[in-house]
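User: Hi! I'm working on a homework problem where we have to compare a predicted structure to a textbook description. Could you give me the structure for the chain below?
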Amino acid sequence: MKKGILLPIAVILAAALILFAASWGLNGIANANAQAEHLSIMQTLLPGSESFTLEPYAGEDDTIRSVHKAENGYVIETVTRGYADDITMLVGVSNRGTVTGLVVRDMAETFGLGAGALTDHVFLSQFLNTAGEAQVGEGVDAISGATVTSKAIARSVNSAVAFVTGADADSGATAWGG
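Assistant: Happy to help. Predicted structure tokens:
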């Protein structure tokens, strides 16, 4: 009776060991692929940049999560509160203080409304070449039915530009705006 149960247990343990080893071995590849994808996105957001250096950020703007410096500007990771949850973005800003690119990386906004910001290129393109003055209703058309989400994205863009240009956060460059 003991021999009848030992063989299935041994097979299960061997299979678990093989799966664990494969998972551990592929983990490095997954991390390398994620880093390569992140670098590719940052190079797209800040054209002409080859490499980025993560810089420490100890400023007062709690929207900014990380700062990546390149030769010709910065890619700023921001997190702002949207309608349903936080919105994580990457914003490319040239050394001159103009937005060169932006992408929404993560959000959980309402399907059919605010969630459209992930793919609404017409909405997102309104922020290109701006210099931190983007205000919804004043030069930036909101996503229909998603004003809170639209304002959160504008705040992220303005915070990124304010970091690069040194704008005073109290000046309204990063104000919620209503």
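For your comparison, note the following. The helical segments are 2-45, 121-125, 147-165. The first strand starts at residue 53 and ends at 55. Good luck with the assignment!
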